[in-house]
């Protein structure tokens, strides 16, 4: 990632995500979370209670700002390959 890209991410308020130094999570942990996630109620169900999963929790966990940034996205059209 270039310095310009990193600066753009910081300017958007997502700088803390650049500090995450992992490229994977243990497989058993990933399976544990996925198996216990209830998408209807948006919770991870544990034997001692539930962990609510919402924008505030994710924001706090990742250290990201919650709201206030509008992202403009334009889809690039792909050229069809000629045969």
Give an overview of the whole structure.
- With 83 residues, the chain is an alpha+beta fold.
- It has a domain at 21-66.
- It has helices spanning 3-11, 27-36, 55-62; strands spanning 37-38, 43-46, 49-52.
- A three-stranded antiparallel beta sheet has the order 1-2-3.
* Distance between the ends: 35 Å
Strand residues, percent: 5-15%
Question: Largest sheet, if any?
Answer: 3 strands, antiparallel
Widest sheet: strand ordering: 1-2-3
Name the helicity range.
25-40%
The total of helices stands at: 3
Whole-angstrom Rg:
18 Å
**Secondary-structure element pattern, one letter each:** HHEEEH
Specify the overall morphology.
extended
Number of strands: 3
Low-confidence stretches: none
Mean pLDDT: 81
**SS content category:** alpha+beta
Summarize the helices and strands and which ones pair or pack:
Elements lengths: L2 H9 L15 H10 E2 L4 E4 L2 E4 L2 H8 L21
Antiparallel strand pairs: 1-2, 2-3
Key descriptive features of the protein:
single chain, 3-stranded antiparallel sheet, 3 strands, extended
Q: How would you summarize this macromolecular structure in one to three sentences?
A:
This protein has three helices and three strands, in the order ααβββα.
């Amino acid at each position: 990632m270039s310095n310009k890209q990193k600066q753009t991410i910081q300017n958007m308020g997502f700088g803390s995500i650049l500090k995450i130094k992992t490229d994977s999570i243990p497989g058993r942990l990933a399976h544990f979370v996925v198996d216990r996630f209830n998408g209807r109620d948006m919770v991870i169900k544990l034997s001692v209670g539930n962990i609510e999963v919402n924008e505030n929790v994710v924001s706090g966990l990742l250290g990201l700002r919650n709201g206030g940034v509008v992202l403009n996205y334009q889809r690039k059209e792909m050229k069809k390959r000629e045969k």
